[in-house]
Write a structure and sequence with these properties.
Helix content is 22%, strand content 23%. It has 276 residues and is an alpha/beta fold.
Length: 276
């Protein structure tokens, strides 16, 4: 697989690229289907409504996997219908819950871009597929790692944002970190050679996370439905509301970001749940 590139525009006159991330929507064919007590279509609907109020100037939306919970064509159709209400183009990658062939067929039919590489004047965004068929953990294939090599070799002076579903560093939840990106070291070894700013953005962990390891900034973002309690060794849900992340990419390599959430208690999960 080679890079499938599209331009990354900058809405702002100062060359800042504005992105939004939406992740882990876990939609069902049934719009009233719920995940651990949270009706996922309705919570995603509320997030999209809130995003509409905040997306002025956004250049692209990154949808970082687990868009479906039941792998149905209808679940992806629901996702597309909501994304159409947001003006910026949407770029996607699969998560461990997605059915990749169904996902691709439905998003292709809706005209949602398959591009895996967004190229701007100062930044490049690389969307990597970490889905390991039949597994909850993630793994980057040789083809995906070759794309990293190609992006770094072709655009060595561009700052780099890597979007991937699974976390490449521990987030401090033992039960979640066993379902991480299994060959994260192969990714880190490549990124360590990059001399411009490097950021890795993921979903999967249903919580906000922002830390720097060995000069690389790692970000994770809340789900649009249930949230997992940070720093919990055993499975635990959190009281935090559903949300999304916004990012500003500056020409000099700086990245500023903010997590937005719905009002408290907007969607309360079933705290008696003992598994996911």
């Amino acid at each position: 697989m080679t890079l499938s590139s599209v331009p990354l525009g900058t809405h702002a006159c100062d060359g800042v690229a504005e992105l939004s991330q939406i992740t882990d929507t876990h939609l069902f064919a049934d719009q009233n289907g719920d995940l651990l007590g949270v009706p996922t279509w309705h919570s995603c609907r509320a997030v999209v409504n809130a995003m509409k109020e905040e997306l002025a100037g956004c250049d692209a939306i990154l949808a970082t996997g687990d868009l479906s919970q039941d792998q149905s064509a209808e679940s992806y159709q629901h996702f597309v219908a909501m994304m159409r209400e947001l003006a910026p183009p949407v770029f996607w990658l699969p998560g461990n819950h997605d059915e990749a062939p169904v996902m691709q067929a439905e998003l292709d039919a809706a005209g949602v871009s398959q591009a895996n590489h967004l190229l701007g004047e100062h930044w490049q965004v690389l969307l990597l597929d970490s889905q390991a068929e039949g597994e909850t953990c993630g793994r980057l294939s040789d083809e995906q790692l070759a794309m990293v090599d190609e992006a770094l070799a072709t655009y060595p002076h561009h700052h780099l944002l890597v979007a991937v579903h699974h976390q490449a560093v521990p987030v401090g939840c033992a039960w979640l970190d066993q379902h991480n990106l299994r060959n994260a070291e192969a990714l880190k070894t490549r990124l360590a050679r990059h001399r411009a700013s490097t950021v890795v953005l993921c979903g999967h962990v249903h919580q906000g996370f922002d830390q720097v390891f060995d000069g690389i900034r790692y970000l994770a973002s809340p789900s649009t439905c249930i949230q997992f309690k940070p720093l919990s060794d055993e499975f635990a849900l959190d009281y935090m509301a559903p949300g999304w992340r916004q990012l500003s990419l500056y020409p000099d390599g700086r990245l500023s970001t903010r997590v937005w959430r719905l009002p408290p208690n907007a969607f309360v999960p079933d705290f008696s749940a003992r598994g996911y």
